[in-house]
Amino acid sequence: MSFKYSKKDKLKSKKLIEQLFSEGKTITVFPLRLVYLKTKFQDDSILKTGVSVSKRLHKNAIDRNRIKRLIREAYRLNKLKYFNKSSTSYAFMILYISKDKARFEDLDSKMNVLFEKFLKHTENETISN
After folding, report:
1. What percent of the chain has pLDDT over 90?
2. What is the DSSP letter of 9?
3. pTM score, whole prediction
4. What pLDDT, on a 0 to 100 scale, did the predictor assign at position 1?
5. How many helices (DSSP H) and strands (DSSP E) are in the chain?
6. Pairing state of beta strands 90-96 and 32-38?
7. Residue 34: predicted pLDDT
8. Average pLDDT, the chain
9. Which domains does the chain have, with CATH numbers?
10. Residue of 2, 34, 71, 96 with fewest CB within 10 Å of its CB?
């Protein structure tokens, strides 16, 4: 796994996105919410991730695109630290749920907390199964 956020790492499938929101589980660390679903991909990817910012909360496309860029960068820098040894594949959707404008330092630290919480949560699921 590399630091890249390439095309094969992006969540594009409409079917999978619908399945993610209907069957997926969520973890929230304000201002981020992670919706995840354990799944298998045909191209043997470990993670596929999408990013979304509400149009209702952020009217200007410029603001939404900037926040999405910052979230993708925070994800790209942190995914290697948390998912390098992962053998299970997941589909992720990271949502920005705050009305405030984002700062990279805040998003980066919250992304770390979110991934820590995710790993703890999935670890508990595998123990209970």
Report:
1. 74
2. G
3. 0.91
4. 58
5. 3, 4
6. antiparallel
7. 97
8. 91
9. 7-121 (3.30.230.10)
10. 2
